[in-house]
Specification:
This protein is an all-alpha fold and 225 residues long. It is globular, with a radius of gyration of 19 Å.
Length: 225
């Protein structure tokens, strides 16, 4: 742990911290040290397993950057059930979109079946970043062979009004348009989303290079005025 704290104290970037603070209004400025993700990933790979275990057990952390390192370490976990247990411990301490969206363990790309039950639980949660994380998992791991139409149904039915959840909902449906157009279009054509998420989904889809111009023109005609 002393080695980790020393790393943070010796490598922080004040200017980068000021930049990050502007992007994360939910985090107190004095909790941001200023670390770039590639440096954190590189450092995480140098740590022995015992140091990693000690750090992961030391919740809550004092700094945003420590939470980022925590998320990066979980992304490296190779045992799916252990990873889920560690995520469950960590989720209550996530208080910003950056840490939430960094937490995408690679193991679930290969074995999403281990995650499905937990995703439904997170989507039904009460904490903003637990729900956002659940949507992010549905987006990252359940668009391919593991896709179920129940996922967009659940995500569309979430209560609107929380910015960081609604942004992820829009991202989810824009990605659904790119990968599963026929599954996504009814949610816009029939206005199954709230007005803000509906329009933000269209805006994000129209920014995508993976969506054809013809579909973009159709989507622009579906804007909710």
């Amino acid at each position: 742990m002393d080695r980790i704290r020393e790393f943070f104290m010796q490598n922080k970037e004040e200017k980068y911290a000021a930049f990050q603070a502007k992007l994360m209004p939910t985090v107190d400025r004095d909790r941001i040290l200023g670390f770039r993700v590639p440096l954190l990933r590189k450092f995480a790979k140098t740590l022995p397993e015992e140091e990693k275990k000690s750090f992961l057990s030391s919740l809550p952390h004092d700094f945003f950057d420590e939470n980022m390192l925590h998320a990066i370490m979980l992304c490296m976990e190779k045992e799916p059930l252990q990873c889920i247990d560690e995520i469950e411990r960590f989720l209550p301490y996530i208080d910003n979109w950056a840490v939430c969206d960094t937490l995408r363990p690679k193991i679930f790309k290969k074995e999403p079946v281990f995650l499905e039950k937990s995703v439904w639980k997170w989507l039904s949660g009460e904490e903003t970043y637990t729900v956002r994380f659940g949507i992010g998992c549905a987006l990252s791991y359940f668009m391919g062979e593991s896709f179920s139409p129940e996922f967009p149904e659940k995500i569309a039915a979430l209560k609107p009004g929380e910015y960081y959840i609604d942004m992820m909902r829009a991202w989810y449906f824009a990605e659904l348009l790119a990968q599963r157009k026929d599954e996504a279009l009814p949610y816009l054509a029939e206005r199954k989303l709230d007005k803000w998420t509906h329009n933000k989904t269209i805006a994000k889809a129209c920014e995508s290079f993976r969506i054809a111009d013809e579909l973009k023109a159709e989507l622009r005609g579906m804007r909710w005025k």
